[in-house]
Amino acid sequence: MSRPDGNRSVLTEPLGDGVAKLTLNNPPLNLVTLGMSEQLIRALEELEGDGEVRAVVIAGAGDKAFCAGSDVGEFADVRDRVVEKKLAQENRAFSGFEELSRPVIAAIEGFAYGGGCEISMACDLRIAGEGAKFALPEVRLGVVPGSGGLFRLPELVGPARAMELMYLGEPIDASEAERLGLVNEVVPDGQALSRAVDLGRKISRGPREAVAAIKRGVRGSLRSSRDASVRLSLELSDHLFKTGDCEEGIKAFFEKRAPLFQGAPEEEHSKEG
Q1: Can you give the pLDDT at residue 227?
Q2: How many CB atoms lie within 10 A of CB 1?
Q3: Catalytic (active site) residue 266
Q4: Cβ-count burial of 14 within 10 angstroms (0-12 exposed, 13-18 middle, 19+ buried)?
Q5: Which end of the chain is least crowded, N or C, by CB within 10 Å?
Q6: Does the annotation mark 268 as catalytic?
Q7: Rounded to the nearest 10 degrees, how much is the dihedral formed by the CA atoms of 101, 103, 107, 113?
Q8: Which long-range contacts (CB under 8 A, 24 or more apart) does 259-264 make?
Q9: How many structural domains does the chain have?
């Protein structure tokens, strides 16, 4: 796993207890550049191959923004072939958060605008500082959220609210985002990362295969028919009932103790602030 390096726009580092941190490192606004998209793809591939990682937390460098969207300065160079030069790569990068077999938790402080909001929506859980702001303002540039916003926002808040937010392009605060279902939890400013890491460590103590199956099942149901979702649920359950973690869970239940799943940390260590 790569270590923090000021020359990189995406950093990864282990935090212990099965949790890895991924940082969008283009302060102060952590804008999405063409280079950042490429680095996100590589970082997620690296995390997928790291057997020690059981949960991933993503945050923005500094406290001004999680990510304030795309670097508009690059638009002149990509407008002629925007899909080929920019959007295809962004969609691949952002979809990587959904495709990663580990849970991904976004720790959001400050602005989550445009592509930053789209990144957060591709994560599994979202924790926001109370001062965070969310917006998909692409309509003001005469375009649409082309890297997931058009379909992920309706999944989270419903089609009518999603269209309202995208038609107007106006920001909403963290409390409104929580009310709409865009974020899971609002915490005091400066505490989103520590809360996200805490959740990641709790998840890491669970059974790895069952956690991965939950993510696969939920994500799959959003793109499938009810019959296909039932078939996937049965397939996942058939496999999980034959695992050592299932055997341990049943044994621990009858012995009235906490289960110790394979490779899981036994207790929570110090939190990351």
Answers
A1: 93
A2: 16
A3: no
A4: middle
A5: C
A6: no
A7: 50
A8: 259/207, 261/205, 261/206, 261/207, 261/208, 262/207, 262/208, 263/18, 263/51, 263/54, 263/208, 264/18, 264/54, 264/204, 264/205, 264/206, 264/207, 264/208
A9: 2
Shared domain check, 109 and 63 = yes
pLDDT band at 75 (very low <50, low <70, confident <90, very high): confident
pTM: 0.91
The size of the chain, in residues, is 273
Q: Is the pLDDT of residue 4 over 80?
A: no
Which residue out of 138, 178, 209, 272 is catalytically annotated? Answer: 138
Same domain, 22 and 139: yes
Q: Of the listed 109, 118, 178, 209, which one is catalytic? A: 118
Place of tokens 């239940």: 253
Residue 78 corresponds to which tokens in the numbers above?
């990509």
- Domain containing 250 equals 208-254
Q: Do 61 and 105 fall within a single domain? A: yes
Which string of b and e fits 216-230 if b means at least 16 CB within 10 Å? ebeeeeeeeeeeebe
pLDDT of 133 reads 98
> Tokens 């965070």, residue?
132
Q: How much is the mean pLDDT over the chain?
A: 93
53 shares its domain with 14: yes
CA angle (30, 86, 183) in 5-degree steps: 45
Question: In this structure, what token pair is assigned to residue 171?
Answer: 């920001």
- Under DSSP, is residue 128 helix (H, G, I), strand (E, B) or coil? strand
Q: What is the DSSP letter of 270?
A: P
